[in-house]
Records
---
Amino acid sequence: MKSIARREARNFLAFTGISLLGFAIFYVYPVIRTFYLSLTNTRVGVDAVDFLGFRNYEQILLKDPLFWHSMRQSFLFSFIAGPLSLLVALYAAMLLNRKVRFIGVFRTIFFLPFVIPTFAVASVFKGFLHPSSGIINRVLSYLGIQGPGWYMDSSSALATLILISSWGFGVSMLIFLAALQNVPASYYEVADLDGASGFQKFRYVTFPFISPVFFFNVVLATINGLKSFNLAFLMGRGLGFPANSTLLFPVYLFVTAFRMPYKLGYASALAWVFFLVIMALTGLNFLLSRYYVNEDVE
Amino acid sequence: MTRTIRTYIAVTILAIALVLVGGCTPAATPTAEPTTPAGTTPTQGEVKPSGTVSVCIDIQAKTIFNQFIARFEEKFPDIEINALYGKDQNALIAANQAPDLLKTGDLYVVSQKDLFADLTAYIERDKAAFKPEDFYPNAYNSLNVDGKQLALPSFFNVGLLYYNKTLFDESGIAYPTADWTQEDFISAAQALTKMEGDKVVQWGSSTVLGWWGEWLIHVRQAGGDWMVDGKCALDTPEAIAGLDFFFQRTTKGQYKFAPSPTDDALGGFAGGKTAMEYGGHTGLWVSYNAISGFNWDIAVLPKGLKTNVGAEFAVDAYGMYKESKNPDATWEFLKFWTGTEGAELMSDMGRPAARMSVAETVKAIPMEERANPKSIEALFDAVATGLTLPTDPNFINCTQQVVQPYIDKMLEGKLTAAEAATEATIKANEYLEANK
């Protein structure tokens, strides 16, 4: 027995040693290094480094209005864009789960937006949505409607980002589709015999079966929404334009670290606060999942 | 466990520990007085410098720099230039792999000062041939921090009015002149904006939104400024008048303004369907001249509320990394680049040099023999009325994240100029105080 355990331990280390080392160097080390930096006033180009203790954290939580503003924008973005994108993904997955001709073509078409780079998406939508030269407002004006300022107006810029972000629902859709295909057809047949409506079939058959996957997608959508950077950076020119309305937290973090005066120490503290917030939200998601995830599904 | 496993685990733990301990060591020893950089003492005598000199260069400038470097290496065969096109200089610095030559500018040099070697001794040694007095004094002096010359100007940008001569000719409108006022500019922009139905097919001019590029010019031309004595001064009557002028000119719709080139199907000024570009950038001249048939020129910016002083004058510069392994060769390349010969070469390739003698050489070329822009005198006139930006390290973040939102709201008509200026000043001064 002892020699079997020893062999297993040796095999375990042989197979995982390299990746554990990689994990330590590329994940654990940066996390610890970032925490160390967060306790200092490190700046690129400045030699003197002072140890500040938790003063950066104090500054963030008590004296930095931009932190609270950017966090608010990120929460708004995540809590609206996340569910919106999930609904679109679920609806698309249900459509694509039907037995129709050329379903493969439709699946490819629906997945295509996901593989288009964000900068291309941003550029295309900027052209479409420009208040004075974009096609959307021109069409609206033909209909006698005064179009909004879209991403050029501080009151509609975040909503515009949310709308555009629902474009990238491809991965969630694929996950939903895989789950939907595992729902046994016999359950629907029974539901049909019982005269269940479409909504009742979804509520009592489909959703319980896909609830674990739904939970997984909720966690992903929450984290991705809060981490969302590219679209906001491109649409808001990396500046939060207009009027800081697109200054999501990751954009604020980026400009703090990589724009003069390159406050790496402060930005590291921001990153840690953000990490704790995301961890807390993920924990909350796990707690809430007890109320809607059916764990009996295999 | 066998000895093999124990050894394996021990080595892994040791490696992780070494990495972690290394990570927790400060990048530099915290000292008030930096140690004397290697590059401050030039080699005396006739020792010929040799070796490799690395430098990060914008990918857009690759074509001209390939030619430029080839010329240098022809003259100095013992020195090889390792041009890191498109590499992120900050990332290299953070990774302790800083190149020998570092890009900076008047706006950045103060906050980056610990990275640079003091070039004073090199300049002093070679001053007869290098002629430091030939640089524009405001460009050269803006790179001197605490009495140390940390970098040298490689080229400069100053706000100008760019115009498309073809579109002006087609509309029969006279080209912009040095005595243009804002009224002249606005009426020309209105006349040059062309519509087909409700679709714009030609823009009269662009307007810079979302950053200080344009509103600060109006504030300064009205006699105000952003920063006075280290504090935000946007709430002065002059600054408020300048902001209000900007608001009246844009949001009030005196003319439709072009979207930024990335948002606009017409492709901005370079697309050939925008008659004028307000401010612009000299770094784009090479690109403009690469467009076949694009007939463009420059004029000084129109006079604002009170004066024509206030166009943004910005210096692009390079300095020597203080821990350069090859300071003498690095200096040789920097000296060539920013010296008369290199500056003339760069100027020929379309990058304005910050040397007065080069300006005279350029102006001496008959107008019909010049590449665009033909009215190059406007560039040097603009230098005389241009103003540099505050060198306070917090200027950029404070302006973009604290002041700009109020300007944006003013342009949306949600705040008056006075309200925006007052609020912005209070918040900016709080920010500057908190981030001292």
Note: Chain A touches chain B through 58 residues (CB under 8 Å).
---
Amino acid sequence: MDEEQPEETTKAESAYWRENVRLLVTLMSIWFACSFGAGILFRDWLDQFNIGGYPLGFWFAQQGSIYIFIALIFYYVIRMRKIERKYDLDD
Amino acid sequence: MDTQTLIYIFVGGTFALYIGIALWSRAASTKEFYVAGGGVHPVVNGMATAADWMSAASFISMAGLIAFSGYDASVYLMGWTGGYVLLALLLAPYLRKFGQFTVPDFIGTRYYSKTARVVAVICLIFISFTYIAGQMRGVGIVFSRFLDVDITLGVIIGMGIVFIYAVLGGMKGITYTQVAQYCVLIFAYMVPAFFLSFMITGTPIPQIGLGSQVNDGSGMFVLQRLDAVLTDLGFQAYTSGSKSMIDVFCITLALMVGTAGLPHVIVRFFTVPKASDARKSAGWALVFIALLYTTAPAVGAFAMLNFVDDVNETQYSEVDDWFTKWEGYGLTAFQDKNGDGVMQYRPGNAFEGAPEYTGETGPSGERALANTPNPDSENEVYVDKDIMVLANPEIANLPPWVIALMAAGGLAAALSTAAGLLLVISSSVSHDLLKSTFAPGISPKQELLAARLAATAAIIVAGYLGIYPPGWVAQVVAFAFGLAAASLFPAIFMGIFSKAMNKEGAIAGMVSGLVFTFAYIAYFKLVNPAANSADNWLLGISPEGIGVIGMLINFAIAIAVSRFTASPPVEIRRLVDSIRVPRGAGDAQGH
């Protein structure tokens, strides 16, 4: 995420891009936390809890992270539509 | 009606459907051939992407892989779904806004360099051919096992079907056929899964069933039972893994990034009308994929319980019919090491490699084996992992039409992926190599003809690889994901998110990522397979996961080189600005 060139983009475009990147960083952190965090790095600790008959870490690795991935994409779709309208850049 | 007749009816019926769709949706222009005219509804495209993505391996092999490796198989479940988050958030909308036809188009234009385009084409062709050989093989296997047709004839029939709809219909024909194929394959996968889940847990939904109690009054949960059964026999507990954490981490990441860098997946997002539709479409694709990917762990676990229950400590003469039927196809075998006529299923291989039958019958009636028994293991049972899906309807005593459905589903999965791969190969030849690099003067009509000829040639090569699979095919599937992760993904990502990235940096990055990953995998898989163990791996990372290091090398070299070379020209910075905003995507650009 390099230096912006003010002469090449309008104010709205730069503000739109900054807001998009901020949203991306948040969502990618959740993406990382649920799969690599809960499903791999902290799995052993999480396995002491259960969700139904699933040990929690195992559930994240084989079920939960996939559901969270879907939720992340649709949340991004909805948020971006709002952000695009706000800066009048929607397609 | 007997099972065999039902199989012919189901497979014949679905083939007629695919050909009918192909004739209805013939491509008339290069734009229709490459990107289906850029007017596919996002949900339809999502469904087609899911069929494109889920190959013969996902359909036939994945549940078995999970059944036999338990937690370790999570790398595939997370790796092959998490990549869609990267696609939807980081790549797809921007590539759609860019609005051309192929992945090398983007790399060649963004890095203002024919060299970059050709490097991308080389990566693409290598990745796609590795992948496609496996699909044609899958077609042959389904034909030979379910229709009693010779593998060669099976592959030729499969080639004929793909030829009709991929060469005539291009992306347009493929897209609508894939929608039909998705419906066939998901139905075929879910029906036995519902039955199995209901029989074992009393809950028909497999995703819930896997977390429920076994339906035998013991009050034990399915996973507890499985852990207990397997540890009793001396196996690792199902819910704990045997791979090291760093390896699990790296394989998962390599598969995710590799998925996002696979050209036949990326190109699907060029077919929707708008940039915002590309995001939506990736979301729908993941919904359709997740339906199978969240069911597979349940199918694997249930099948494993049934399998141990049916086979272990059972007299061979009294074993269920499915075991002897699949023994006839070489997918199961019994080597009676202690001569008691009872099958002991234990950790370790019963013997090295695949079963070689002597043609004689052993004392209990089993097919006698020529393989030398493995003295280090008490295991007497050989079982191919594919059986967990293929034999499921029989293991669970399901009606014959379910078996027919499995045959049609396996073929749908293999054909849909093969068609998508053929298309990216043919468009990279006709569009990137001919039109954009070596023969810019050709007319759109000639380009369309070249695309069809390239698709035909690719089908023949793929068919040949399917009939005579070189020994290395199974060994190098890791190549496809590792190379995509180490070469294409970083180049596309930096092309969007860094305006300072120039052609020198991108080319140096792609080449170094590619060479490093290629050399590492080739060394452990082909040159010196004996050394392929955790002690010799770099940082304990297996060849399957090394794409992650290749990717980091790509990023590091690209950034370093771009610091010391000329910045990209102003018009490229403008191009990046314009792909970053969704407004004005319009039509896929015609040339």
Note: Chain A touches chain B through 46 residues (CB under 8 Å).
---
Amino acid sequence: MNAALVYLRWNSSRNRLLSSVKRLRNPRYLVGAVLAAWYFGWVVLRGFFLHGAMPSPSKVLISPLVVTIGAVLLSLFSLTMWIFPQERKTLAFSEAEVGFLFPAPLTRRRLIDYKLTTSAIRILFSALLFAFFTSGLSGGFLARTLALWLLFSVLSLHQLVASFARSLLRGKESGSGVKLLSILAGVLFGALVVYREQFAGRRLSLPELHHWGQRLVLLTLSGPLHWLLLPSHWLLAPLLAPDWAALSLAMLPAIALLALHYYCVIRLDAVYQKRFIDLPAGSDRDSAALRAASDQQRSRRPPFILKESGAPWIALLWKNLISSAFANVRMWAGLLGIAMILAIFCARSNGGAVQLIIGVLSGFAIVWSVFAGAQICRQDFRQDLLRADLLKTFPLRSWQVALGELLAPWCILTFLQWLSLLVAAACLARVAPPQQLVMGVLVAAIFLPLLDMLLLMIANATALLLPTWVLLSGRGFEVFGQRMLLTIGQLLALLLCLLPTTLVFALGVVLSKLFFSLQIALFAGLLATTPVLLLELFAGLNLVGKCFERLDLSTELLQVE
Amino acid sequence: MIAAQALTKKYGGFLALNALSFSLHPGEVLGLIGPNGAGKTTTLRCLAGIIPPSDGNVRICGQDLASNPIAAKRLLAFFPDEPRLFDYLTVAQHLNFIARLYQVHGYESLAGELLEELELAGKRDALPSELSRGMKQKVAIACGLLHSPRVIYFDEPLTGLDPLGMRRMKDSILKRAQQGAAIIVSSHLLHLVEEICSRVLILKSGCKVADGTIAAIREQFSQQPDANLEAVFFRATSQSAVAP
């Protein structure tokens, strides 16, 4: 890398560290740093030193079935990079970099090397962190860091390769997402038909499942599957090495993969530049370069026609839905179609393993979406924090802005959860008593959206009360502590919100039990909590609105400085 | 049309705006000038309802901004120095969005006219990332003017515009004023203020130093009748602040 670029990297990192230290004068950052230091010092480092320098990987981890499943999952993860569009964030240049480096006498290759080196350093920190958290799972700390760094680096480069390849293959064609969804639905349908032909009506026992596991391992030892999974095995091998000698040997193919990926990135970037960026003289080369670096965003079809009359806050929902990948009605219809296929298949099957797996996965998806959904779907205030001034000029009451902002992630989560619920219910159709199943589905269908809204409100209120914690996330050691505090705080807020609901539920069950059966009493208790939750949501909406009203980002950012 | 009464804004112990009072009538263009940190942007943000003042009140066409913010905000438009657009909305989608927020019936024809006027007709389906800074500013202006505001605030309106864009912007400001809008322009470009503003308000450290027509201020701070606004500005801001 060019000496000037090394200087830039070194000083940027040093100054960022100094800024982080200076920020600790602000109590809210100091608290985060203290908490992070305590966590690393007591919880992680203690666990790390308790384990030996180079312990052997745990027996569970090196069992052939686990390794094979790991390789399959890793391959599937790589496959998703080719199916779903990804931004080339690793190669995204900041405005300052474009301003200073693009006109400088540096080749594109040097700039790419600079970005990749920066990314490699960042990945090293991630690997260190992961190595801390996985102490005792496999190998020594350094060996694990090295193995994880190789794994993450290859995945990062693979993502770039896939993104470049997609852009080059796609050209200027649009709507590929819906096409891919249709293809996926077709493949899924085909797989289900084959499954029905082969295994319809068979119930698999545990020994049979074990036998299936053995067959899966055997299947991957030869034939095309073996070759398909080989790169994943190479990447996982360093993590499973019992000593340094084995690690050195295991790293060789992984390093070769890393080199191959690096070569591909350089070549594909050159081809991409030639095809899309080498513009005739007089074109806006800088902005073109910027766009190329960050994989140009495409305009998205609105989810529905927005008329100029009607509730104004719907405009915010419309805007935020466009910002998500779920802007397209055809996408929603496609997902509904896939869910329907799965549901029909599961409802007509007779308790097979696949049905069981689909049911468990659907249930897991629902539970996971309740816990993580509000943190992942961020098409709300958290996305618009920097535009808060603009939002405040709109002729809307603060609760209307809050409602409009919260609706998009809520709609997305509710839609996906109802789809999962449909599939899960279909899987249980043959085993659960119909009355209980209908009641369970009904209760879940009513409560999941209410719970989602509650969680979204808590997450948004936090973002509005502590905007800098959200805006500056990912920068500095103290951010880790802040995230811990945020998580704990949000959990406490959720528990506090659920306390009255739980009390009403208990009261409802006890009273109903005097007249009805336990089943009906439980159902009645749950229904009694609905107005309480609705009241809480109403109060919450006003609270989020008030938080938005009081937000003054200029003051917040000044305090950070 | 705009009436600010004892407008005060405190950030902790820092007084950003000290009991500022002034009024502006339809068709008037007020130039808000002052050195860095004088409180110009804070004034505009208070007047636009973005931040609540610590004390005092603002009335827009008779509507109190604090007690009746919806009615007041429907009548105004604020153009910050840095256009903040939504990254994922196209130019046309921005206008559609604003039309719903401000309930602009039959907005398509109005939007078409504005896009033509601002030379954005060919960029209807472009995302902000595909636009230059000047074009982004034009999109923000199109959005702001779509609901035909009666009160308009500009914060450094010429930043990022090419010479033709600057000329058009000045013409556009004057055109809106002729149509009866009350306009406040905050800028460091004194020649712009001199060219388009009928009144000037000079701020220093959150206090009003001068308020009146350019001729009146020239008379107040300069002995020379032909002194330019730059000379008057330096003289006004080098003296101590006067009572609000």
Note: Residues 51-293 of chain A form one domain.
